[in-house]
Amino acid sequence: MKKVVKILAVIFLGIILSVGIGAYIFYKNIHVPAVQEENPIASLNNPEKKEEDLSSKNVLVVGSDENNLSDTLFIANYNPKNKTISILSIPRDTYYPRPGYNSPGDKKINAAFTEDGIEGTKKAVENLLGINIDHYIIIDYEGFKKVIDTIGGVEVDIPFDMKYDDNSANPPLHINLKKGRQVLDGEKAIQFVRYRHGYIDGDLGRIKAQHQFLEALFKKLTQPSTLPKLPSLAIAVSKHIKTDLTATEIAKYAYQFVKDKPSSIKSFTLPGEPDYKDGVSYFFADNTKIPEVVAEFLGDKTTFSFDPSEIEKNKAIKVEVLNGTNIPGLASKCAETLRKQGFDVVRIGNVVGTTFSTSHVYARTDEEKAKKVANALSIICVEKDITPDSSVDVTVILGKDKSK
């Protein structure tokens, strides 16, 4: 099975943001939007613009191979105000059904990139987490290997012997690493982050190992001895990633990144657990825990919407939640998720006489209100059922897809 590098591309952004010269070289080579903008180096040299528009941004990072396949999804957040870097990993097998896609593989979130491109992936992640994605980065693992080799390798502690061969992969995958602390070059680093067998908790164990690698890589990149290598590093990376970040944005964050020198990276993983559905292995996200994890990831004390004014607006939306399965407590669980986000849940009940395999949200008074509720619960199906004398704005019918 084809794999791509996980959790690491955020550091590429950090590299690019590290020095103005590196950013300028990057600008000359990377695939960026063709827009008219100011010279990025001039932006750095203008004191009045150094602090301009440096707000916290959510950057979606997607790992992709030469066949446009991806199992890498995470969000990186660099907050210049708080001087923090955070990453939130989304397991590749996360259950995320989309209308019109009915095969088992299509119901995994990583399929959104292959079939719907970066825009489809952004939409899926925004719906899942309830946050806005400001920018994206798409990277292949050849670029990753070049970065590791350029900085002279990264030291990590390999928890156990790792050996695996897959000649059917494209390119073929051969992993042979020994237990213990050692410096990994680009090729061995690829093996380490791609290895997924032997972890007690499966893919979550691999994500934890990659977080460890990321911390080690970050420390290496912030060492003074690495700084002279950054321009050549920017050139190497630029040929292997695509992004909608402009050169001016890169340069502005470059200045702030060097100035702040963030000392650590906070790592988070989408809450949930692996399980099977119709004989297929998935990772089922826990929607009741997502708001808390995302809030911590963003360094925000508010709940799901991260905007007190949005929570206040949600109080005006009346919702009824109905259990369309035979699973006890499902409606109450989802109702609590909605209440945490401010929605006025006026009724919890059961659908009598039939069961639903897929969850639905019905707009009784206003479609936009229904979409907000659907996003809060990561439900794809939104339908109009406008009833002028309805006592609720939105009706939610929970299907078996919400049983995990």
From TrEMBL:
Q: Which UniProt keywords apply?
A: Membrane, Transmembrane, Transmembrane helix
**Which sequence ranges are marked TM in the entry?**
7-27
Superkingdom assignment: Bacteria
Q: Which Gene3D superfamilies match?
A: 3.30.70.2390, LCP protein (3.40.630.190)
Indicate whether Magnesium appears among the record's keywords: no
**LytR/CpsA/Psr regulator C-terminal domain span:** 317-401
What family does this chain come from, according to its entry?
Belongs to the LytR/CpsA/Psr (LCP) family.
| Cross-referenced PANTHER family | POLYISOPRENYL-TEICHOIC ACID--PEPTIDOGLYCAN TEICHOIC ACID TRANSFERASE TAGU
Q: What is this protein called?
A: LytR family transcriptional attenuator
What is the scientific name of the source organism?
Caldanaerobacter subterraneus
